[in-house]
Specification:
The chain is of the alpha/beta class and about 220 residues long. It has helices at about 5-30, 35-45, 60-70, 80-95, 105-110, 130-140, 155-170, 185-190, and strands at about 50-55, 75-80, 100-105, 115-125, 145-150, 195-200, 205-215.
Length: about 220
Amino acid sequence: MSCCCPHDRSASRLFSWFTPSYCRRFKKRGLERSQRQLLAALEQVGFEGASLLEIGCGVGHFHQTLLERGASSAVGIDLAPGMIDAARAWAVERGLGARTDYRVGDFMGQAQEQEAADVVLLDKVLCCYPDARGLVRRSLARTRRVYAVTYPRRCWYVRLGLSLGSFALWLVRSDFRVYLHDPRGIEGWIRDAGFEKCHAACTWVWVTQIYQRSLALSPRGRRGP
């Protein structure tokens, strides 16, 4: 997807509009349950001194929490200018301004220029992309060690909720849609790139997974001697 497509423009407007509510929610409640699951799993695999790349970073609270707990630096990318403005302000407020870099836009259009990171995060992002396969492949190409994802469960009540949400978006003439991708496809794309799943958990709505690059694979994806 390019930043000029109707879906991206609608996503940018929608999430910028929601920025104040995201900030209020985190200040009041902290991390969501699925994010707490991701945090606990990342603490097990280790992120001390790691560089982070969060695609669809929102207001930045998740990777900033990782920075406060030992990660070294973070790059956050998001389509919504309002989200990025809030993330920058929040980073300064938390004393993390020098360790963060924020960029407005679609990662798919910036992937070639983006440096690889030790840990790549896609928290509730795959469901915002029609081309999930392309996003997974390009983000994996920028992952040195750990790949963390959260995406919707494929069950009846999630399908119903997404259908109602799509209808509401249609009523307000928004081109943004939420997508329910096949978990088997997502896992297959990640494994094909040489990563092994080391953590899986779920909430009523979300699946959280952590993958690590297989030590048995060379950088070119071939089995070592």
